[in-house]
Amino acid sequence: MTELNNGAETLVRTLTDSRIDMCFTNPGTSEMHLVAALDRIDGPRCVLGLFEGVVTGAADGYARMADKPAATLLHCGPGLANGLANIHNARKAGTPMVNLIGDHATWHVEHNAPLTADVVGLAAPMSDWVRLTPDAASLAQDAAEAVAAANAYNGKIASLVVPGNAAWDTASESAQAMRSTPPVAVDPTALNEAVNCLRNGKRSVLIVGGNCLREQPLAQAYTIATHCGANLLAPTSNARTSRGHGRAPVTPVPYPVHQALEMLAEVEQVVLVCADAPVGFFAYPDTPSSMLPPGCHVVQLASQDGDGPAALAALADAVGATDPAAVPKLTAPIKPIDASLTPSLINAVVAYRIPEQAVLVDEAITGGRDLLDFTAAAAPHEHLQIVGGSIGIGPPLATGAALADAERRVIALQADGSAMYTLQALWTQAREQLNVTTIVYANRAYGILQYELRNVGAQSGDQIGEVARNMMALDNPELNFVQLATGMGVPASRVHTVNELDRALCAALAADGPVLIEAVL
Amino acid sequence: MTELNNGAETLVRTLTDSRIDMCFTNPGTSEMHLVAALDRIDGPRCVLGLFEGVVTGAADGYARMADKPAATLLHCGPGLANGLANIHNARKAGTPMVNLIGDHATWHVEHNAPLTADVVGLAAPMSDWVRLTPDAASLAQDAAEAVAAANAYNGKIASLVVPGNAAWDTASESAQAMRSTPPVAVDPTALNEAVNCLRNGKRSVLIVGGNCLREQPLAQAYTIATHCGANLLAPTSNARTSRGHGRAPVTPVPYPVHQALEMLAEVEQVVLVCADAPVGFFAYPDTPSSMLPPGCHVVQLASQDGDGPAALAALADAVGATDPAAVPKLTAPIKPIDASLTPSLINAVVAYRIPEQAVLVDEAITGGRDLLDFTAAAAPHEHLQIVGGSIGIGPPLATGAALADAERRVIALQADGSAMYTLQALWTQAREQLNVTTIVYANRAYGILQYELRNVGAQSGDQIGEVARNMMALDNPELNFVQLATGMGVPASRVHTVNELDRALCAALAADGPVLIEAVL
What is the ipTM of this complex? Predict the structure, then answer.
């Protein structure tokens, strides 16, 4: 075993002993001893991102597919700030993550050097666990606690601030891996209440989220709902859903508020398992925040921190839903006839070509509105969505997912406006030669805003003026994603028709390494 | 005068009445009423950035050249988070900025929708003034106070959080522009002390920063230093320095700590005007944080919030430095002979070609080490640096500077690694057809980290392993900035030699609109 000489080396050894295998990095001067330690100690694999939003988004994608946290290595307050939006997304997705944020040596902070910032203050709003480690002797134990905090059920964001001297001062002892907080056990009272709801004949909905959207618990939820005559729903956006042929179907609550309100208008009872009661993504004038009708009875069988699969198993037992319900047989996707591309046609081609056990990273935004309809009977795959609503997750999420499982192909469905937030992830895909195929829905607009401007009642269609139009249009100049991707080492092509997309997608899925396809709408 | 109907419209009118002419935007759903108001009311010019770091960095560049704040329009907590790093840079530069951050309607926050975040908590670490406006009736007055707070001397960061209902609820009264906090007056005791220092024959240094680096006060500082036999220095990095032929010379404290310590080793007294006592940019093991020798006497004649030019005028009077000192006559830059490019040769070509009254935006990092030597006798120009140390300021800063003054050419000297943080600014340059010429120093590395890895004592040169090398090298794959720029609508070319660069630079400076030149090192 390599001898440990300083805090940084005890940190790296502790991470390794705590099963952290991957570290996404964008280090700076204050992290150089951590870099040296990662170099010297046989520890986590290090993957460089050219921007911190890439680093944290990739850590999210990795954890969603590896079912364990990655570490990130970030540079001082501003470096952390650049990664916060995707930390927010990860937190909302229940993703575990261990952020290591380097900072000035403790004795240097009072001198207010240029990069001095309140790192703990910045980390706190987006983290579940934050600590500033005081010295080298404390660093290993703090790291072990950070990993344990991240691994709590469901995943948490742990942010550990590491002053330069805590990394470079002498230390020799790593810390043992620590046990994490187990999931909250099923509450018998809530279970009885849920059983009563599902048996009393009223109109009931079972909403399952989090880990309950994986293949086995989802099948159990479907069996329960079928057995009891309840509707099975999922939250609007989810970290990871097992979908496709043979998997139990689950309908997400629609994003448009009027659709959600309509879908849930007659519901009398809701049983929640690892899900919150549905609320509007945004607020609108004269519109309720809750999507449930007044008086609707809500039973929280398991919170987001609860053991959802165990709760479903207990519920199935209690209601006698023991025979697995057969999933409906759906017609397999067919190849659409050739035509100029529309978002729906892109979704149809993807559904037709998605490989077995692929990962579908979905930041298609307005382009993906009917995606789930098309992919319902596609080859079995994992569907990864943006849960926190902060655009700019797609390219990093795909990067991290591909690194977590080299056996799976990753298809990233990417809105053009959102792509521009963290497109630097393509460079990491090229460097690591990841099997990621990115399809850009190039509608040359923030389509969601064009939709929402009317939705919030800010302007009716014919009143949109030049100023407002310019804040939502990306057509002047047009972005050329072929050049952008090629400039970062990712082969790319532009397609306009179904047949062009189909050919490009087939070629991409047969190739090694990343490919980008710009689908012009 | 257009009638005002809601909070958003009273906000826009108030901004206009408070002399806010420019708003850099990246709005989302919760800001749609603000967008509609900006559309309807004849108010600030709106410029879209494709990422919030572009928005805030452009606001910084605008304010540095326009000498008044721009507004930014940001989307909820995560949108603010994406802009924080360049807000940090702006704050350290003493740049005024008014951030308008949309958020959920007040009654929606408790429902914990996906984008819900502690916006005030995120803004606080990087802001001087933060407020969450409670309702539409308060919005106009809060906006007037935000502008006044930003305009305090020297510039401050004001962040106003605007809930959706504060924007869309009925309101009809805008607020009057408010007076800002004036600069702190010159303290007679400090003035006497400074006079005594400069006359007592001990080795003295006059360090001037902030507004004192503009042409007139800098000339006065030079006259004082010359008259009194003191050295004239500036902080290592500065928001805006008037430089070039005919301007008074001032030497910045070097970035490398050993050079700074050596330069200041014999200093007995320091007089500070709008500058802090020099400290190390980073901490290093066994190295002091202060760059001043022990026992050095420090006189703060004016703080960063003080009226530096007035302090210098009073000091000049008091020491009798009334005749302007002649600035040294330097040889004008010459065109270097043709050769393969090095960073120094790029700097030499730039110095030779920089147009009269141009703006030099400097995020060249390691490539810019000897830039100031070359440009000292170049045509008079304004030199804008990264003050807060958070890389990724260059492309946005150049964008904002160009929008502030269409008469000036902007030359942006850009390190490649840093360019990749906020390269989306090129799209805004193309859309607005700004006269920005960006020169990328393509060394395919985080050169500063290769330097600092040794500097902090983390590794000696021959010990650098594959993992550490990979975290600092950008050569696999090589970034192609010609494709990246062209993909965002900016014409670009790649050059390898002095003559190629010179030709490309001349063509760029003669053209309308933005150009990027990738200088391969």
Answer: 0.97
